[in-house]
Amino acid sequence: MSCPDSLPEHVLSLLKTSKYLHLATCSKPECIPSVSLMNYTYISPEKVFVADKEKGATGERRHYIIMATQRDTEKYENIAQNPEVSVLIHDWVTAKKLSLRKSSMSNTPTPEPQSAAAAAAAQNPDHPSRLLNLLQELNQSELSQMSATLRGRAEAVDPSSEEFRYYEEALLKANPDAGVYTKGQNVAVVKVRLESAKVSDRENNTSFYD
Description:
The chain contains seven helices and eight strands. It is an alpha+beta fold. It has two domains: about 10-90 and about 145-210, Electron Transport, Fmn-binding Protein, Chain A (Pnp Oxidase, Chain A), CATH 2.30.110; about 95-105 and about 120-145, no CATH class. Strands 1, 2, 3, 4, 5, 6, 7 and 8 form an eight-stranded antiparallel beta sheet that branches. Helix 4 (about 95-105) packs antiparallel against helix 6. The longest helix has 15 residues, at about 130-145. The N and C termini lie close together (about 10 Å). The model is unreliable at about 140-145 (pLDDT under 50). This is KLTH0A00990p. It holds the Pfam family PNPOx_N.
């Protein structure tokens, strides 16, 4: 089973533009869960490595997420034991902008009222203060965000293969910050074939895509 063509465009857009995701893995047989914040890149069906295209020659569209990790990590051991994983992506862009604005506001000295009338206006709860505007925008931003939980099957790519170099290059091109995770002899490039999705919208409605 592959990730369906009917995935909403905003989910695909989020996959293409985000830099980080949360990766959930689970060990076997203990079933101990683990969550990691990961750099990644999304590989659309038309850009997958040629061998993966051949596997999907029957018409099955294959969507991948590519990540890099050290082989002596808990997440890698979990994947080796249990390739079934989940990833969470979330639209943090608006919230980040608001956080930066809030920080800027907190570092800006509050001017003294120039007059009694100005002071009275500032105390008026109906007065459109900067803080009130910020809170209103924050509420709106929370409503506009969405998140998607994607399930898939993870596989470490053979480090001596052309496929390894192909996906490593794609990861670094999309996210140069991931370079620190691709250095050394102990690096693993992991590809996750997406299989299903659960999407929550701004009103907490949930849609499933298999």
